[in-house]
Write a structure and sequence with these properties.
Structural class: alpha/beta
CATH architecture: Alpha-Beta Barrel
Helix content: 40-55%
Number of strands: 8
Radius of gyration: 17 Å
Strand order of the largest sheet: 1-2-3-4-5-6-7-8
Order of helices and strands: HEHEHHEHHEHEHEHEHEHH
Number of helices: 12
Number of domains: 1
Distance between the termini: 29 Å
Shape: globular
Strand content: 5-15%
């Protein structure tokens, strides 16, 4: 059983929802990323979504765009991100790690090389935002052959046919983008999220995570009642930007947020 599947199974037995923070790898530096990953686990998160920097992150709002720009100034590459996962795995062999990014860096490295290196480092899943299932057969096949789950996105506008298409190729869990827009946008309509998840679950048996627009403990708790996982990105990356020049204070600020979310989710 994969780390992802085992984690979801364990949480389900405890009647808990997974908390998945997103952080941009290399922000403010690679060593701090590894420290932050361990601190996040200690704060109660269940999986980590590690951002791969890219110059044109089309699904991301200004907060995560700015993080990518900060990291690219330091020439952080996909190979560096994979090396961070390998370093994390030296002392944590249990927490699932999901790489979240865009296709261009993978194209440059090569699908087969990426799948091999990511698997060897201990990557559990890859969410490649701009790789649609219609064009991703070879890529998805290589990932699955190396034990890496391909994570796909669904949106409020996804119809029955699209949900069925994703169901045929997705692994690990499905990521539901809870609003029409980019990361860090708008206010969530919890009822509409719940209704859409009901529709998705009629065709998909995998766990369903919800992300985009979750910025505080109260919202995380509400989403945890209807989702299998809560993904939090911009709210975390914003704190990283504010305190990146003081890494220890930055880590403390981030884990205060995730700890509060974990507590609220468990009480919901």
């Amino acid at each position: 059983m994969s780390r992802l599947a085992a984690t979801f199974e364990s949480l389900k037995a405890q009647n808990k929802t997974a908390l998945i923070p997103y952080i941009m790898c290399g922000d403010p530096d690679l060593g701090t990323t590894v420290k932050l990953m361990h601190a996040l686990v200690d704060s109660g998160v269940n999986m980590i979504e590690l951002g791969v920097p890219f110059s044109d992150p089309m699904a991301d709002g200004p907060v995560i765009q700015a993080a990518a720009e900060r990291v690219l100034v330091n020439h952080v590459s996909l190979a560096d991100v994979i090396s961070v996962v390998a370093k994390f795995r030296e002392t944590d062999t249990q927490t699932p790690v999901i790489l979240m990014g865009y296709l261009n860096p993978v194209e440059v490295m090569g699908y087969d090389v990426f799948a091999g290196k990511a698997s060897a480092a201990g990557v559990d899943a890859a969410l490649t935002v701009d790789m649609p299932p219609e064009e991703g057969e070879a890529y998805t096949r290589l990932l699955k052959a190396k034990g890496i789950d391909p994570i796909y996105l669904l949106a409020p506008t996804s119809d029955e046919a699209r949900i069925a298409s994703i169901a045929s190729v997705a692994g690990g869990f499905v990521y539901y983008v809870s609003l029409k827009g980019v990361t860090g946008a708008a206010t969530l309509d919890i009822d509409s999220v719940g209704s859409k998840l009901t529709q998705i679950r009629q065709q998909i048996s995998l766990p369903v995570g919800v992300g985009f627009g979750i910025s505080d403990a109260q919202t995380a708790a509400k989403i945890s009642k209807v989702a299998d996982a809560v993904v939090v990105g911009s709210a975390i990356v914003k704190r990283m930007a504010e305190l990146g020049h003081e890494p220890e204070k930055m880590i403390q600020s981030v884990i205060e947020l995730t700890s509060s979310m974990r507590k609220a989710m468990d009480q919901a």
